[in-house]
Write a structure and sequence with these properties.
alpha/beta; 4-stranded mixed sheet; 8 strands
Length: 142
């Protein structure tokens, strides 16, 4: 059982890359979020109008040895460790917008309900058609 005095809160999902600021600019444009912080080694994006850490964000960590994963997986190739899923109300429009921001559409796709794209650093992410969820009063999408 957790000690009631202990507080744990999700702060951010951290992504390795060679250029944190460049990748932060991509995700800030894609999500209409703000870059809360950046320096040579780190950058952080979060929802607009909230203090850094008040809402989970995405941080980017400089790793000079970063190699983009291969999508889809191949034996003996760099594997993805995680990927981000984003709910969208109009899949095709969201895909085109992501491409305008700097994403590329992955050659291999596995569903009509979502599209796999690659961010400028090569991380796969998915834009997911989430009509039923998004129309629920319990789902908050800015």
């Amino acid at each position: 059982m957790m000690n009631p005095e202990l507080k744990i809160k999700m702060y951010a999902f951290t992504v390795d890359c060679k250029d944190p600021y460049e990748l932060a600019k991509f995700y800030a444009a894609l999500l209409n979020w703000e870059i809360a912080y950046h320096d040579e080694d780190w950058a952080c994006v979060g929802a607009p109008g909230v203090a850094q850490g008040a809402y989970p964000g995405i941080t980017f960590q400089r790793n000079p040895a970063y190699e983009p994963p291969v999508w889809p997986e191949e034996p003996e190739a760099q594997q993805q460790m995680a990927h981000l899923d984003f709910a969208v109300n109009d899949l095709e429009t969201a895909v085109q917008y992501a491409v305008q921001c700097g994403a590329t559409i992955a050659e291999k796709q596995f569903s009509d309900g979502w599209k796999v794209l690659l961010d400028p650093a090569g991380h796969p992410f998915c834009l997911c058609r989430m009509k039923d969820m998004m129309e629920s009063p319990l789902f908050a999408l800015r």
